[in-house]
Amino acid sequence: MTATTADFIEVYPDALDADTCRAIVARFDASGQDQPGRVGGGHYPELKHSRDISISGQADWRDVEQRLNLAVLTGLLQYLRTYPFSLIAPLMLQQPDADGTLRRLRYDDVANMDEAALMKLVMKVFVPGKINLQRYAAGEGGYPYWHCELFPKAADAETLHRHVLWTIYLNDGFGAGETEFFHQQRKIVPRTGSLLIAPTAFTHTHRGNRPLHGDKYIATSWVLFQRAERLYGNG
């Protein structure tokens, strides 16, 4: 395999169609459910200034949750084919050869795996995180604090199970408002319906820059590893 330079930040245009994005934004504004954005379980507007709705598990948002998760799953499958070690390096995954003998998965196995087999593996290994819809008001909203997505605060260690982050941009044209990655010196310009996927660790420390001429809307969450007892059993 030829070595290549990669920053592991991928953007998939048109992961969600523009009409669906506009409908989600309209529902957000009409819902009256938005709350001040939180950071690590607390409200720190100097770090993150937004209005958020956590839609996961809410019956009236179930259709949106399913639509977003489907769009992310499609992008995730592409991401795993580009970066097979994101799936196999953390785990000692095995598959049967033609004679039924189990062997460890290799990176080329993932890259060449048919869609159904890869989907089955993804369903076994990963679980979708809780989805947050967010609105950043023009000229004042933003997430200017440099941060990553892994932190050891949650009692059940869920925040340490986050493997990749994702954001779907629900609108654009507001000026600035980029997702900026510190070490990669890269700014992702929001485009309606685009899906951003990147690792969650400190290597991909990032921030959300302030939109200037209009409100910015996003959907965001993570793809997490299943809990250990689900992956390995109680033994």
Automatic annotation (TrEMBL):
Domain Prolyl 4-hydroxylase alpha subunit Fe(2+) 2OG dioxygenase: 132-223
Pfam families: 2OG-FeII_Oxy_3
Annotated InterPro entries: Pro_4_hyd_alph_FE2OG_OXY (IPR044862)
Protein name, per record: 2OG-Fe(II) oxygenase
Organism: Pseudoxanthomonas japonensis
